[in-house]
Amino acid sequence: MTKKDVKKILVSGASVAGPTLAYWLHYYGFEVTVVERSAGLRLGGQNVDVKGPALQVIKRMGIEKEVIAANTTEIGLRFVNVKNETIGEFPKESALSMTQELEILRGDLVSILHQHTKDDVQYIFGDYITRLAEDQNAVAVTFASGKQVEFDLVISAEGIGSGTRKLVFAEEAKYKYLGLYTAYLTIQKTGNDSRWARWCNTAGGIVFLLRPDSYGTTRAAITFASAEMGYEKLPVEEQKAVLIQRIKNAGWESERLAGEIKKSEDLYFDRVSQVKMTKWSIGRCCLTGDAAWCVTPIAGKGIDLAMSGAYILAGELSRTENYREAFTNYENRMRNYVEDAQKLPPFVPGIVYPRSKFGVSILNAVVSFFASRPVQSLINLFNTKKKKKVEKHEIELPDYG
């Protein structure tokens, strides 16, 4: 499909939103380049669930079987105390389980998306945008490598700290810090690890989460309550020291995790913040994914938003020759969905991160109550009707043809 005013599009970011966008833009006939700051695909990360809008997009891309084949094999969530005793068990069929029917490692999803776009889309790794100069006909892009290229449109599908967003919007992005820091890393599997995810609350507002993967290792997440301290800006070795000090003497498997942190090569450590933007485009530049609306893992909608947003943005650009109109239509379709995803219930996330041993014991008692068979049966009974209603009104994914 040839467009009069838009032919060449630059997408910055090769995680989930970027390659999904590139796939659909190529499908509609655009010439697409994807630039990624990292030297290669960033294949680290934790489990992501594929459901709702994301699953619809995956089916339309024809990659559902590959995604299913990469399932992490997780069968449910167990809450344990510091003695590793199970206090509550939620199989993936449970309405209260964090585990979804289809779980895949973020890196595996990134790899699948890359495989289905690399032959049709130009990928540039180890480079990034340093300057944008727009006129009425194009955007002149300067890269860190010194290369200069003109594109009709530039779309940032970067992460929460998007550098391209700052070039376009200056300081317009607002961050809503949720009072938490989180760290992800891959660790060696031990005899305590199984196909069940294990969640453990400890005093000090710390939550440990260990989840199985399909590679014979275990994915660890450590999240703790804290004032905003700027840890995300520290060098990796200093981040490791901060994290180890924070979990020191926390109990459960903290000593094991401290040892794994020291030797980790894929540690990710950042504050948990939402991104709030009043608009997602200026001129020929547009935002999508976390750069536009990071909802944090707490919302459980990151992949849904990344893939549905990319699908809709590409579809709207295919539907009209006026890119400004396409950007407006894209935002109109996505805005309510994003804002609903960013709404958190009262006392969340704070209620899940008690700082005292007494608070942890109260939380564990509540978990045990909800994990009881009578309560589970009652919740699942009512959830069946509610689930159908939510899925029906979640977001419309038009058939753009």
Structure explained in plain terms:
Helix content is 36%, strand content 26%. It has 401 residues and is α/β, with parallel strands linked by helices. The protein has a domain at 8-43 and 65-71 and 105-175 and 275-345: FAD/NAD(P)-binding domain (3-Layer(bba) Sandwich), CATH 3.50.50.60. A seven-stranded mixed β-sheet has the order 5-4-13-14-15-12-16, sandwiched between helices. A six-stranded mixed β-sheet has the order 7-2-1-11-18-17, sandwiched between helices. Strands 8-9-10 form a three-stranded antiparallel β-sheet, covered by helices on one side. Helix 2 crosses helix 9 and helix 6 packs antiparallel against helix 7. The longest helix is centred in the last third of the chain and has 21 residues, at 373-393. The protein is globular. The relative contact order is 0.17.
Strand-helix topology:
Blueprint: E1 8-12, H1 17-27, E2 31-36, E3 47-49, H2 52-61, H3 64-69, E4 76-80, E5 86-91, E6 103-105, H4 106-115, E7 122-125, E8 129-134, E9 139-143, E10 148-151, E11 153-156, H5 163-169, E12 174-188, E13 196-202, E14 206-212, E15 217-225, H6 236-247, H7 254-263, E16 268-276, E17 281-282, E18 285-287, H8 290-293, H9 302-319, H10 323-342, H11 357-371, H12 373-393
Parallel strand pairs: 1-2, 1-11, 2-7, 4-13, 11-18
Antiparallel strand pairs: 3-6, 4-5, 8-9, 9-10, 12-15, 12-16, 13-14, 14-15, 17-18
Helix pairs in contact: 1-9, 2-9, 6-7, 9-10
Organism: Pedobacter westerhofensis
Domain FAD-binding: 9-322
Protein name: 2-polyprenyl-6-methoxyphenol hydroxylase
